[in-house]
Design goal:
The chain is an all-alpha fold. The chain has helices at 3-11, 16-51, 59-93, 95-100, 108-153, 186-193, 196-243; strands at residues 166-168, 183-185. Strands 1-2 form a two-stranded antiparallel ribbon. Helix 2 packs antiparallel against helix 3 (59-93). The chain crosses the membrane at residues 19-47, 67-92, 113-143, 204-228. One of its GO terms (cellular component) is myelin sheath.
Length: 245
Amino acid sequence: MGCFECCIKCLGGVPYASLVATILCFSGVALFCGCGHVALTGTLTILENHFSKVTSDHAMLTDVIQLMQYVIYGIASFFFLYGIILLAEGFYTTSAVKELHSEFKTTICGRCISGMFVFLTYILGIAWLGVFGFSAVPVFLFYNMWSTCTAMRSPVANLTNVDTICVDVRQYGIIPWNASPGKACGSTLGDICNTSEFYLSYHLYIIACAGAGATVIALLIYMMATTYNFAVLKFKSREDCCTKF
């Protein structure tokens, strides 16, 4: 066998679906965790400077944001390891690898591990659908504020009194109703929209939401790959049982 044929045969053993899913998963989780972490910090800065100037009013929100940032660290670490494990599992259970190793044998332990990955990937996929929906909430809130500022600056709006246009973040449940001032109106609202914290946080939330969506797609590909690998293992085990008689 020549070098070219050997390379082609080795490339045939690469689980391309798992490889694409791993790259997409790493990229999506990195975008979600990195951008989400910075955007949460920017959001807290905006609230402290413009909507809730009394520390005790947003103390719980500060604790929640810090907790979410710690959770982000855990998510990044977990999916880095889980992606590598799924990629390794794809290499060892793909049918192309079995063709390369004619004496490949399945065991009950191997099938159980493969089945566990199928179940766990399905659970993570459902969980990330929730994360994707949750990550769209701050995008919606920032978009409302941005669209309000854009409407105020629009020359076709013909507004006589811009001070009557307000954004009250208390209605979203972010801060309590007794927070002061709790809302921003007119030129104050326009100044908030022109700050670097608002601009950066808004776009980072969009990127984080896109990263969560990419992770959902990656987990969907993982679902199909792990389910296929598990089915092949089951078929191989039946084939091994048949050849014994």
